[in-house]
From TrEMBL, chains A, B, C, D:
Catalysed reaction, written as an equation: dUMP + (6R)-5,10-methylene-5,6,7,8-tetrahydrofolate + NADPH + H(+) = dTMP + (6S)-5,6,7,8-tetrahydrofolate + NADP(+)
InterPro entries on file: Thymidylate_synthase_ThyX, Thymidylate_synthase_ThyX_sf
Gene from which this protein is expressed: thyX
Record: residues binding FAD: T82, R105, H106, R107, E113, D214, L215, H216, H220
Lineage, opening ranks: Bacteria, Pseudomonadati, Pseudomonadota, Alphaproteobacteria, Rickettsiales
Cofactor binding note of this UniProt entry: Binds 4 FAD per tetramer. Each FAD binding site is formed by three monomers.
Provenance organism: Candidatus Cyrtobacter comes
Keyword Transferase belongs to the record: yes
HAMAP family with a match to the protein in the record: ThyX
Pfam families from the UniProt entry: Thy1
Similarity comment: Belongs to the thymidylate synthase ThyX family.
Required cofactor(s): FAD
Transmembrane segments: none
Protein name: Flavin-dependent thymidylate synthase
């Protein structure tokens, strides 16, 4: 009996909305970075649950909007967010602490994190691949520029690895455990309190948590964190979650790409620039009323401006 | 083929945690008040999902706490609330507007309400049963005292009914619909905007919504709204939800009754009063340090104080 | 000694950021609708508090962005919302209950509402002005169309007034008070519980609350509620609050108008339409890939499309 | 002209409620741990603002409750939390990253954190004092037991210091800066992206943020984090904040100590135990219905049980 047959036996019957494409990957870790993963643990609702909730709101008013997909597009375009809050997903995520620190800034979610006060962290830390070791960007104060050449990047990787290892060695010493096996080292003494020892670990150590969020807030997270300005190490998590989103709620996914993550917000001044240009008025960077940065950004999207 | 057989066919297979006792009542309206109801629409998680989330947090630290029920009690007692946030429930509720106004003060929930800007409200309003028509309480500024005698209460009920009916009559006139059938009355004219006409309805008209909340916040709601100080008309909803809670997460339900809704918070001064009394010191209302109200409340719980 | 001199004496000295233009209107009711008002009760922070908070985040990284206004524009444009959460405002608002029901859907705010369980509501209800009595819009399911002619609107206004008055008459009877003076009517009997009697009032009765919100969430509220799709009766509150915003944080106000309330979000498909059009490609409604509604909306902004 | 005179000149006049005891310490850092601090940056409201908000809710119903302190006690005892949400405080806090990770789990607050993607962290890390280096508690899975003897604790402190220093040395190398002066080291090369280099720092490095929270949520934070089960390194921050609370809202502070932080929640079972004991019934650990842990805890509070 293979693995899939066993899973089949574990299934229960339910009257709740069920999404086959998501059931296929339920509980299965999707690898991210060198030791991280995302696992879907549970979900509530599907595309039709959003339509159902919207129809409670609009009652007979939505009768004519016969197609669900059209209604979902309408809701997304007009930022009618409450129906999207009617779906919920729960993920198990393993991620480096410096990524967790960004992630947790999204407050409208539920989190159960592994506690290093109670338990001992494993010897697992993130080391970037060589092609991710980049210079500080000159133009973007928070971004990466060119990749280092091989020799230089190896030196950086060695530093990261050696420091993480030495810190763990001392962490294990403090806890009085063998750093490989986790066994007690010296039976004659106790370990230092775990809540103290943990401060010796570097920010690339992995932590893990259960993370539960509604669909509206998930999309807000994904819009920000799949953006090319987001740090690579959180963006790769967002990208895997986009694939999960597509499996879970395919109509919402399409609407999200068109109206949210792939959209562009024109400022009042930029509206005027395009309006004038379409009316045949010549607009230059100087007389556009836009800042240099805004002009360049608009030009990036509309090169024939 | 009877109804239950049909439902059986509608079931899907899922790997998600499934609660049979809750599946039994899924989608079925539970009546509340004269026209209201609660229906469970969806749920995520069960008792074991809480244990599972807690074990992510405490890791190896919970190994010894072998019994799930013990762990749930421990979490509830010590207000370790995050594992309870890992379960979620979605209800469809029909309720009078004045009840909805109290309900919505619980902000940590998702709501999709029927919109009377888009759609027309049905002619359904709440009329209390005669035994609920009470005088203003003298002692409790926000409560009810004695029940009115039959003749007086009938007069009140007639007023409520007549005013609600007359208001709907004019609401329907404004909308240009027949108040019984909802058909257009006069084809030669339009109705007044629904968003305007609705203001003529009284606060006992029924509205409805989808309401989604996590288990931790649900229990907070239930603690406040099943309390005997809560208004009767919201308390009856809370009581039905307690029954739902018991079906859904029986271990959590027991812990909730013991450590939360059935518990009593002793102030620092009250701790000293009981401490002294157990040490054989005589404590009187006057020298207790408690306000008269606090003393009476404590005496209500411990008559032999 | 005039009123302004008295107020001057009431002033305290503080090291906190203080905004003179807002102090001028502090505590003074700004009238809205027929009996409503908004009063600023307290505030925390000003334009410079946002800059200060942003500089904590970006540290030396913001050194070059020497102008505060530029930084505020940058934060607004890129939806870096956390610095805007560092300002807070507290308002006292009197508003019809049906408006309050929309308002309270904004959950990220603190509210203390007048309780009709504890206290008696005054005889104050909202009656629209005649030029606000409109037919249901044909095109917009939730909006207003043409204004009724004089005779028809008077009939509606009479209905609203008479129903509100009769409901209050019975409310007062139930409470055993004189509806004009609020004095006890009949000393020989008690009133019905206030929590019951209130259900007989119509949704245009006024309630009031203290409402406290941070600047980021205030702007979200204002964007939605000052929009021309918002119901007139809440929009007039939003418009008064925009004036308050302008007094309080003038740089933020300008950025809000340009990048948020006056902006337009182009979907991915709409970006392509404009891109092609600027490249000289002819785009028609049919081959645009936009829905009819979206095409018309885009055409409304860019008539020369 | 001394410092206080200068500050006096900086003061503005305001009609807002002002708290002199808090103005005295405004902007002044209160030291915590070896390099941390708390500074009050701004505040909104005082004791009377809570009373004022409560009186909006209860209207004439609170007329008789003539004393503000009595009303505040009443609100605190009965968990009427909304009036406490009407006050707000903003703090500037410098704290070790592992403390920040606990702190941020309180989601109902606004945060602007120093960004190590934009800017370079200073060489400042937390080293406990020797009397804080304790063994893992045997009884409490998340706590500290006995303090290590001098020689052993020195060894731990050396490890912590050496690892933090070496990690910073490599952090500075990656960034191409001098670790003491922050000057560029080698003009011929760029530094590695700051968002990458930061992962090499240990969790005891200091970060800082602006943190804004309402009074209700602040007290919830303080109740949990000033508890003796909280980790020492966050508890010392909570203790300083309790002093700030006392200056800011002295009546609320007293009520908080009596009804919240100093209170004890009796479970339903524990109520019965005390009830029986006061009625003269002998109760033993075995027949109490309490778990061993609960019995011991109750016995800790009432030794004569």
């Amino acid at each position: 009996m293979d693995n899939n047959q066993i899973l089949e036996l574990d299934k229960s019957k339910t009257l709740r909305p069920t999404v086959e494409a998501l059931e296929e990957i339920l509980y299965k870790p999707i690898n991210v970075l060198d030791h991280g993963f995302i696992r879907v643990i549970d979900y509530m609702g599907d595309d039709s649950a959003i339509v159902q909730a919207a129809r409670v709101s609009y009652g007979k008013g939505t009768k004519k909007m016969s197609q669900d997909k059209g209604l979902i597009n309408y809701l997304m375009k007009h930022a009618h967010t409450t129906p999207f809050e009617m779906c919920e997903i729960k993920l198990h995520v393993k991620l480096p602490i410096f990524v967790a620190r960004q992630w947790v800034r999204h407050r409208t979610a539920n989190i159960n994190e592994y506690s290093a006060r109670y338990s001992i962290l494993d010897k697992e830390f993130y080391i970037p691949s060589a092609d991710q070791i980049s210079y500080q960007s000159i133009s973007n104060k928070q971004g990466r520029g060119e990749v280092l050449d091989h020799e230089d990047s190896q030196k950086i990787l060695d530093m990261l690895r050696q420091d993480a290892e030495r810190c763990y060695e001392n962490y294990a010493y403090m806890l009085n455990i063998d750093e490989e096996t986790g066994e007690v080292l010296d039976e004659s003494r106790n370990g230092v309190a775990r809540e103290l020892a943990r401060m010796n670990l570097t920010l690339n150590y992995y932590t893990q948590w259960y993370w539960k969020i509604d669909l509206h807030n998930l999309m807000h997270f994904l819009k920000l964190r799949s953006h090319h300005h987001a740090q690579y190490e959180i963006r790769v998590y967002a990208e895997k979650m986009l694939e999960i989103l597509k499996r879970w709620v395919p109509c919402v996914y399409d609407a999200f790409i068109n109206y949210s993550s792939g959209s562009f917000n024109l400022s009042k001044t930029a509206i005027k620039v395009i309006h004038d240009r379409l009316s045949g008025v010549h607009i230059s960077k100087e007389n556009s009323g836009l800042s240099a940065r805004e002009w360049d950004e608009l030009k990036g999207i509309f090169p024939n401006l």
